[in-house]
Every structure is written in C-alpha cells, then in structure tokens.
Amino acid sequence: MRSPSSTRVFHGFAAGLAIMLASATGACASVLQVRVHDTHGAPVTDAVVSLQPLDRPAPPAHDALATMDQRNLSFVPQVLVVQTGSKVRFPNSDNVRHHVYSFSPAKRFELKLYAGNHASTVLFDHPGVDVLGCNIHDWMLGYVVVVDTPWFAKTGPEGVATLEAPRGRYTLQLWDARQDPATPPAGGTVILDGTPAQRQYTLALHPPELTNTAPPNLEIGLGDRAPSHAH
C-alpha cells in the first residue's frame, strides 16, 4: 500500500505528464484560415475546403453520422461535407412527403416518399460530390461532398473557413457548386508548421440552375402532404 506522501508524488507526476502531453499535442496542431471570394470581390459562402495529407495516410472515419434535414421544402444544409465512410441521416421536418435521390456516380440511392424520420441512413463510402434532388419538388437541390480526410470546413457568410490540422504537408482542395468547370481547380500544396497560416483564393462562379428555394405562393397538392400521424 502506498503511503500518503508517495500517493501525492504519483498524482503530481501524472498531472504533470498529462499537461506535457496536452501541450505537445497542441503544439503539433496548426490553424489555417482560408478566405474565398469571387471575381467581383464578394465573399463566397458554402465553399468546401479540405486538407489531404501528403506525408501520411489520413485517419479513417469512425462511426461518423451527419444529418441533412428537409425544412421549408429545402435541403438544410444545402452543402454537407463528410469524410469517406460516414453515414448521413435525411430526416423530413416538413409537413409534406419527400422523395430524395442521387444519380451521382459516387453514390446512387433513393429514399422513396416518406415523412418524419422514417428514412434509412445512407453510407457514403466513396469520395466525390453527390448531387441530391427531390422527385416531388424539382427546385430542391443539395450536395453531399465526400472527402478522404477528417480535416475539412465550409466557408461562412464572410467567405472564411478555419481548419485545424497536425503539422505537415497537405494538398488543399477547394470546391464550390457554382465554380466554372472550365477553370483549373483552386488549391495547391500547403505546409503547416504549427503557426497560424492564411490562404486566399478567387473563384469564377456561375449562377446555379436551381436555388433550393421553394417558389413563392406555392400550393401543395393533397398527394404531397404527410399523414397527420407521421413523426
């Protein structure tokens, strides 16, 4: 049995070791701020920024579960970013039924007419951009962007995305649904050395064909309405 003094010494050593490990872990991380604007200087919202490590494999996703809701006859969020191997829920918070589908090569699936939380989760096991629609409401448009890395972020209203990743070399990849496909992809090699870093990119954008917004004065047919007992 340890004496009280030896117990205090042991606890003090353990606490000191924990602090040292925490400090070392924090020192290995770098914060990268990425600012994205269009050719007119306006901030770009919902651009996806990801960091693919060059010196080691990216850690895999473990039981990752994300959610893309359907509210006010729109996908929310319109752009969802997940790591390869993640599952996504598609709850329906509207009082009408939806029929979600994707014909994208990375993931083809259908969630036929349903209401509430009755749809199955979908496993996104291949990287790529999955374009989603609703077979009932043609204007609905969503994107599930699947990346092979846990280090990703989306730009906010100010056009800024902030990522935190271990020190090392990365390929920065930048994607936006409105980007001109004829232009070379933005990004390149980024070296993170433990100090804050910044990058800035300009994208040439086209207006989207669909807005993910319901038309004004829309009238919902009786066949679209969800049963009153659905949850």
Automatic annotation (TrEMBL):
CDD domains for this protein: MauL
Record-linked PROSITE patterns: PROKAR_LIPOPROTEIN (PS51257)
Record's keyword annotation contains Secreted: no
Renumbered residue ranges of the record's region Disordered: 208-231
InterPro entries the UniProt entry points to: Cupredoxin (IPR008972), MauL (IPR034242)
Gene3D superfamilies linked: Cupredoxins - blue copper proteins
Protein name listed in UniProt: Methylamine utilization protein
Annotated signal sequence range: 1-29
Organism expressing this protein natively: Dyella thiooxydans
Alphabetic keyword roster: Signal
Record carries keyword Cell membrane: no
